[in-house]
Amino acid sequence: MEMIIGFTIIVAILVIGDTVSTxxxxxxxxxxxxxxxxxxxxxxxxxxxxxxxxxxxxxxLLAMYLLITHMGTMLDxxxxxxxxxxxxxxxxxxxxxxxxxxxxGSAVFGRDIAFIATPPLTGGTVATLLMGDAAxxxxxxxxxxxxxxxxxxxxFVGYPLTSFMLKREDRRLLKLYREGKLKRISQExxxxxxxxxxxxxxxxPEKYESDSFMLLRLGFVGMLAYFTSExxxxxxxxxxxxFTVHKLVVCLIFGVIASEIGFVEKKTLNKANSFGFxxxxxxxxxxxxxxxxxxxxxAGLLVPLIGxxxxxxxxxxxxxxxxGKALHESPEMAWSIAMNALYGFPQNFMLTHESAKxxxxxPDEREFLIERTLPKMLVGGFITVTIxxxxxxxxxxxML
Length: 400
What we know:
mainly alpha
């Protein structure tokens, strides 16, 4: 297959998902439709390597660096510090998943299934690969595909549930905004577009501020974040630490700092006319792992898969609800934060924008909603998928 053919097919699937979501006002989330189409396609006519053939694999890694750094430019230091409540709620959700799976899940489906399925349910790809290898090492041949199924299946549950909760939260926030009880964050800071409060770099004259120059500065920040994370993790390893700091977490923090001091502008990818293409590249890649599923695989483990998902999500809902209530967070937002464990970035980004788009046609109101919900969703995704799930997988492997 030629690259351009693969590219066109993948983008067509993404467009179908977006169209269905728009037509149903996000009742059916785009990522749900896209994941379903990719899975059915891999089972029938799509080549297993279409994502690689279309050139999305390498481009997606670059897109991740730039997009996460860009996300940092959309926050400020005050917002980032205020996200400690989000961290607590996200961790509470993970505790709920573990309690639900290791009590009811273990009692109904057995200890091995519960141990192997729980870490992938708390996070993403790394936890999935670790538990698959652990099942293989323990000789549990019939359960090797279970982590992959959990990884694939949790999105089909998480996408519509999160979409439903976010829309409820957006309607609540929008009502307060229209009543004048809440304002845009930029308006709270004195009006106008948000910009760095600690600017030490002068503004670039408009005639020199090209798209390429904006991308250069953003790329430089991402590169600094990469080198910093490498040095930091080497230092942690030398001290005998059992954890690492993910490079994308450092990218987010560096993006915040760089925009605060004026080295890069707020929402820099939008201004560089590059955001849409990079987001498309990343979305085209995240469904690549669906090529590992088969109808037989799904049918053979369907009952324990549904059961583990049910027990884990119920546990997550209960604990995150009470913790969110204690921290004065709405149940809808607390549940949305916790459900980041079921997908992470970039799906949380897409679901957040999709929800805002579905409840209002006013651009200013959409920006208000995104300002209020996106930082929480991004931090929730990093805590669950990027950081905690890997730690949980390491602990569970030792106990298996």
